Amino acid sequence: MNGETANRDAFENEARVKKQFEKLNYSVERLDRNNDNRRPDFLISTSPGHPLLLCEVKTINSAGQGVSTRNPNLKRFSISLNRIHKQIDDRIENAADQRKELIKERPQLGHLPFVVALFPDPLVPLHIYSRKFNEDVSGILTIERDAALGTAFSELSDGEQERRLRTGDAIGLPPNTTDFALVRNKSARRRVPKSFQNQCNTESYSDSL
Q1: How is the chain split among helix, strand and coil, in percent rounded to 5?
Q2: Which of 48, 188, 197, 204 could form an S-S bond across to 138 if both were Cys, CB 3.0 to 4.6 Å?
Q3: What's the count of helices (H) and strands (E) in the chain, helices before strands?
Q4: Helix (H, G, I), strand (E, B), or coil: what is residue 208?
Q5: What pTM value is reported for the model?
């Protein structure tokens, strides 16, 4: 993948995260206004003057060494867990460094929880990643599409699922949705506020690694 495509993907993902926060009625202030100012992307507030958390958006376009679902020549292969973990670790550590630089500049924001909104390549599954990572990162956000619809559809009988897929019948099923999915860091110094957790599809600690 060339740099232009990667930059476009990153820009589009930042816009998706901003839109999702605004959909939940949060105020979103951009913090990293130029390439020389490495700071987290957004300050999220419940209203102007009432900050809630910091957010950095990271995109993973490959599983390392050029292995990506965006590659049309991709063939059968295997990926080690270490490689997958490294792709996520690198983004988490980079984001934590960005937060550190911001706090040097604006120490009044140091008490805020910090989340990383992650857009991983499908070859980098988040479910195998440890729920204990850099303590300055409170959690990982992803954008989940049609979670309620998927749950409702899975509860239908096999025959009913087949019929609906064949006919396109969606009567009685939930509408299409986008939601934040939140993975909390068990090692975090600062916890994600409960009010925000309740607005996400939040993974329970008992279900996490």
Answers
A1: 35, 20, 40
A2: 188
A3: 5, 7
A4: coil
A5: 0.80
